[in-house]
Amino acid sequence: GSLAVSELAAKLHRESAEIIKKLFLQGVMATKNQELDKDAIELICAEYDVEVEEEVDVDVTDLDNYKIEDKEDDLQERPAVVTIMGHVDHGKTTLLDSIRDTKVTEGEAGGITQHIGAYQIEENGKKITFLDTPGHAAFTSMRSRGAQVTDIAILVVAADDGVMPQTVEAINHAKAAEVPIIIAVNKIDLEGANPDRVMQELTEHGLIPEDWGGDTIFVQLSAKKREGIDDLLEMILLVTEVEELKANPNRPAEGTVIEAQLDKGRGPVATLLVQNGTMHVGDSIVVGHSYGRVRAMVNDLGRRVKTAAPSTPVEITGLNSVPNAGDQFMVFKDEKQARQVGEAKQQRQVEENRSSGARVSLDDLFNQIKQGEVKDINLIVKADVHGSVEAMAASLEKIEVEGVKVRIIHTGVGAITESDVILASASNAIIIGFNVRPDTNAKKAAESENVDIRQHRIIYKVIEEIESAMKGMLDPEF
Ligand code: GDP
After folding, report:
1. Less crowded by CB within 10 Å, the N or C end of the chain?
2. ipTM
């Protein structure tokens, strides 16, 4: 920016004449009202030992503006975060399960595994974190939200089937993310297993084994028979070492949402992957467009924990709404600041939705699904009695049409309120009222926010309506 001589003088608590004289001595002829550029301002400020701080419009909703830079000395090794990818039926889920079953229970006696979207194991005294949702769809949908959580990709290829279309897709997704790939040639216990053919086929995609002069690590295993699991884990540790993955555990936590949903008893529940810093119970946190204080943290063994170090997944409660997978989160030292940023983000979300007209309405849901604009249908369910809320939420959550799922982000007993509408607006949700109506404020808000409220008196009609809307078979309304 620029500043007039008189303005600069005022800021420095000097007379304009004095500044003009200084400028003159520097070879700059100036009058009182003359605008000075950044260089001239800096020149004068340097004379008075004053540091120039440029005023810029900071986006208060951009978490990047609150990021703390780490000093190299503060960084310590952290566990790798691993995603398992590959063609359908090649054994991704089986591999995830056998790693967890063989490793988690070994050390942690009495632990009961909880599916929170990610888990951590220990091999040779070192930890490894696995994301529990196999496949590149989840991987890339997170990346499309700006979240890079995966450090290493395991590509599972069945030795009896070889490279298939989704194998190639997975390779491309991992390459696009510049993530190192380890090949797990699976099902070597089968009669028709032909690991050599798999290796041969993969060379066509630039994945060449070390024995053949390349640098791709291949591990042969049987996920089902639990053979070769240790080899794979050792290779992961090897790659981890090469990658020099680091984080600073001694700072406020930040990271990414792995998954989130509304829990009947606990409210919004989110699995967070801490990517830097350490998270503590009681921390003030902004997560996507929701915020709150970390009320409780539960790890992948269902145990309550008080802290979560880098690369650790934990399930937290205490947020005011349900964030999205792939959302960034950040802990703020100052509770007030967290609330301000959180509120601003929520508000921003509402405005963006309003201006982009991105609002989902049941009438054009099918079109949006077809165009791939909608992947989840967010619903808010309100009813007159608790039992109906539960029954409806349970049946609605089962609906899935062409990979598009229903996601209940909020439920409640009683009339539809303005706050329900704001939440719907912020989350592109449709509100379902069962034997309840919107109050006056909610009605007004729904109109201005363009939020779709559907009112019903019979449960199966609700289910039917949502299902038909997803299939593009909604009856026109008269
Ligand atoms: P995903 O679709 O990639 O998650 O594959 P799954 O893990 O569901 O496995 C598909 C099928 O392959 C299941 O019937 C598994 O039992 C079977 N399977 C997985 N790993 C192995 C293995 O190492 N050997 C054999 N014989 N079968 C396996």
Report:
1. C
2. 0.99
